[in-house]
Amino acid sequence: MTEYTGNPLLWVALVALVAAAVLISRQRKAARALRQQVQGLRDHYTELENDYGKSVRAAQERAEDETKTVLKSAMRTLQGLAAEQQLVLSRLQNKYGDSALLQDLLEIDHTNSQFGRRAQSIAVLCDGWLGGRRDTASVYDVVRSAQGRIRHFRRVDILSQVDFGITSRAVEPVALALAELLDNATSYSSPDTVVEINIRTVPKGICVVVDDAGVGMSDEERVRADKLLATERASGVAGLGNPPQFGFAVIGLLCERFGFEVSVDSSSPYGGVRAVVLLPHELLTAMPEKKAPAPAARGTAARPVPDAGGPEAASLAPSQTGDGLPRRRRKRPMAIVPGSASAPRAAARSDSEQAQVMGAFQRGTQSGRTTGPASPDDAERTSDTPGASSEGHEVS
Amino acid sequence: MTGQDGWQPEAPELVRPYVITKGRGLPDEDDLSLITLVTASAGQSQRPARLSPEEQSLLDLCSAGYLSVAEIAGHTRFPLGVVRILLASLMEGGHLMTRPPVARARLADKEILEEVLNGLRAKFG
């Protein structure tokens, strides 16, 4: 055993062993350190990547917000101008109502409405101003308003009416959404087909059904429409494609904000798309009162109509035209036409009124008899005059 | 969205006149002049359901007897041309009928008057 200790080879071997062990442990340490470093670098890298993504998104959002703000204010100006122009057009239409110019004015009016609708759609996508209504409107009128905002409005046919109104807050959004649907329906069907609108009462509210006879939607389009209408709302004007497809993006946003539903997942009996707008009870009111032929409210405090003498005149509320002139209400036919004139007049008096008239007549003849005629000529004249004057009253 | 703070222009009419006329053109001036008399045609007791409210109210106006086109227009809030278009379409549908304006009285023949005058003078004067 001891001779081995003296063996230098053994020592050499030992030393080599120790050296190898030390080397290995050092290598291991180095490897561990390297691994840690790599890990650290990797972490750093992902962190950088996240930050980059975040800042890109932030920049995108900022850019989008800026676009939205710019578009919003630009559209507001355009909407205001369109509304202003519409008022000017209304005035012109009233002014030149009896000339051939009216036809052209109506056409300009139509173009102006489409222009206003475009601006409204972009404004909706940019969280902008939609334009408000102060009055409720009947469902039928809202549908017709929507009809007037598209190019091919002549091809739209409203087949039914219901006796419901829409709250003032929802008038514009519903009209705009319907206009977008009608625009789609008329654009994607052939020019000689009719787009039908049916308005139906359902337990949940009211359905406005738009049927077109177009080619329908492809699966891809349907998926996009469903996405925009139901789950994923559009935001801003990015991602609308080129040419931009506003329709469903605008409708989806309006549905979300104002609480009505639009679905396009069924097909129409004519082969095209059937779009259904469901207006819940919250958006519905009673049928608005029929508008007076002209702003009649202005005249209520004004001077009364000069008494026309007839019993009907007192029952009519005094009213005025826009120019401040008292309005004449014609209940009876014109007197110059014989035949049909006498019957309604007689029917218009109630029994008590008839009695009053007879009483007055009797009192008049009595007082006439008591004073006595001065001459036959006078008597003739006095008996003639009341008759003539009452006739005059009657005709008025 | 609502933005009531800012300037809000007076809202224009909801239903524009060209929608009410359904885009139809102006009728011929001779068919419906200002003084043409219009009335509801006989046998219109039951109303067709598919008339617009404006057409219904025009029919109501005309149901009592003859009215002139100008007068009907005065009772509505629409421009005269729009009323004429609506009346023309109601006529086409057979809901209204017109009566041409009363023909102008012919001017009396001057010679006959003179002869009568001369005769009277010869007899009494």
UniProtKB/TrEMBL annotation, chain A:
Origin: domain of life: Bacteria
Segments traversing the membrane: 6-25
Coiled-coil segments on the chain, per record: 24-51
Ion transport in keyword set: no
Every Histidine kinase/HSP90-like ATPase domain range: 174-281
Record's compositionally biased regions (Low complexity): 293-306, 340-349
UniProt region (Disordered), positions on chain: 289-396
Biased composition annotated in UniProt, kind: Polar residues: 363-373
EC assignment: 2.7.13.3
One GO molecular-function entry: kinase activity
Keywords: Coiled coil, Kinase, Membrane, Phosphoprotein, Transferase, Transmembrane, Transmembrane helix
Reactions mediated catalytically: ATP + protein L-histidine = ADP + protein N-phospho-L-histidine
InterPro entries: HATPase_C_sf, HATPase_dom, TCS_sensor_his_kinase
PANTHER family: SENSOR HISTIDINE KINASE TRCS (PTHR45436:SF5), SENSOR HISTIDINE KINASE YKOH (PTHR45436)
Official protein name in the record: histidine kinase
Organism annotation: Streptomyces hyderabadensis
Lineage of origin: Bacteria, Bacillati, Actinomycetota, Actinomycetes, Kitasatosporales
UniProtKB/TrEMBL annotation, chain B:
Lineage: Bacteria, Bacillati, Actinomycetota, Actinomycetes, Kitasatosporales
Domain of life: Bacteria
Organism (species): Streptomyces hyderabadensis
Listed InterPro entries: DUF742 (IPR007995)
Full protein name: DUF742 domain-containing protein
